[in-house]
Amino acid sequence: MPNPLCLKPTTMTLSRNGLAVHEAPRNTPVRAKVDVLVAGGGPAGVGAALAAAAEGADTLLVERYGMLGGLWTAGLVNPFFEAMSNGWLVTALIDRLKAAGAWRTWKFSHTFDPEVMKRELELMTQEAGVTLLYHALCVDSIVEDGCLRGVLIESKAGREALLADIIVDCTGDGDVAARAGVPFEFGRLEDGLVQPMTLMFEVEGVGEYLQTSSGDLYDRMAEVLARQGLDYELPFGRVGYTPSIILLPAPGRAAVQLTHVYRLNPLDPADLTRGTVDARRQAHEAAEILRHVPGLESLRLAQTATQIGVRETRRIVGRYQLDLDDLLEGRSFDDAVATCAFGVDIHDPAPGSGIEPRGAGVRIKPYEIPYRCLVPRDVDRLLVAGRCISGTHEAHASYRVTGTCLATGQAAGLAAAWAAARGISPANVDGAELRAGLAQRGVRFLGE
């Protein structure tokens, strides 16, 4: 009996470049048409969806995992950097975490409970009227005459289309923008390498252990390796940015930023697989080392993250490219949408290569991010937010942190809702008006 769901054959051929599969043309059903479609439910995507819905836009948020929060939740990434400077939805989320007892001060930053974060983000989106679609991956972009009309998704339901007046790419990797034909940069200029990936993990039984510095903890771990004769090797030298035991709100629990995997392409699933397996091995070995550090004898590995932490992939080319000079000068912009004061945090993409990371460790000034960094070149009806906005390798190493991603997301969502309601291109949203609108909603800018 023929399968009614397989009406057209898919054939395989051998070309000069190897094996290829020819897919027959098909009619793809449209699952939904909305005012604003947000691709990706991490910090930027949550901000974009909440802001768009708050303006009355019919908003759909598509997320590949069964949770919101992205690297906050699937990636177990703490602390919540740049938490206190951007207002509006950033402040609203923090207030909810505080009320739930899921927020604490840690050293120079703040941490949160990832499980409470999942629930609070879902409550916020439900209260705002955002429609969620979990377990769906955006696999292609629908472009007509230079305008992005929607995306194609794959899920258990098969291949479907989502159409929208305005799309906000919050995938982190700029997947929607790249598949729509937006030009992008990848890695550092010298060799195209991106920063290493890190698989975060959580431990229990650390009490109120407070490390003095990454260098001090590295030295203590190195002493353990020498003293115990453990057949392990730390995946980095003595650097200022790792390792870190990051105390969480729950008593005795901490997130650990330690594992590093190098010279891998986060856009290649084979590299992602190798990196994840290697980093998980490192996490288990690190827990064994840490148990021999004085004060951490009761430490137990509780869980490793579902998603390996990707620091850097595509950076779209927008109407403005933020660079290191903007950070060094602490520049303001008439069309600013967010501020950032986080340092240029470059984890060496290739230790021992002889290439010194440019900008790492320099003293920057608080700076603003212009709306033009969120507006891609060449493709209309599209905005981007999060770490894939328009900037150089060095600038990206500052604004990629989660609090800033949420801030650019809320700006993109507001702009998208305005563009959809007014029937205009996102490029024609007045940046000065957007800045003023954000300020009215509690976003703080330099000098204000």
Structural notes for this entry:
The structure is a single chain. Helices cover 28% and strands 22% of the residues. The protein is an alpha+beta fold. The protein folds into two domains: 30-189 and 313-440, FAD/NAD(P)-binding domain; 201-304, no CATH class. Strands 3, 4, 7, 8, 9, 10 and 19 form a seven-stranded mixed beta sheet that branches. Strands 13-14-12-15 form a four-stranded antiparallel beta sheet, covered by helices on one side. The model is unreliable at 1-7 (pLDDT under 50).
How widely separated are the two ends? 71 Å
Mean pLDDT rating: 95
Low-confidence stretches: 1-7
How many E strands?
19
Number of helices: 10
Helix/strand class? alpha+beta
Report the C-alpha radius of gyration, rounded: 22 Å
Please give the domain count. Answer: 2
The top level CATH class name of the largest domain? Alpha Beta
Shape: globular
Run of helices and strands: EEEHEHEEHEEEEHEEHEEHEEHEEEHHH
According to CATH, the fold-level topology of the largest domain is FAD/NAD(P)-binding domain
CATH superfamily of the largest domain: FAD/NAD(P)-binding domain
The CATH architecture of the largest domain: 3-Layer(bba) Sandwich
Main sheet record:
7 strands, mixed
Q: How helix-rich are the residues, as a percent range?
A: 25-40%
The percent range for strand residues is 15-25%
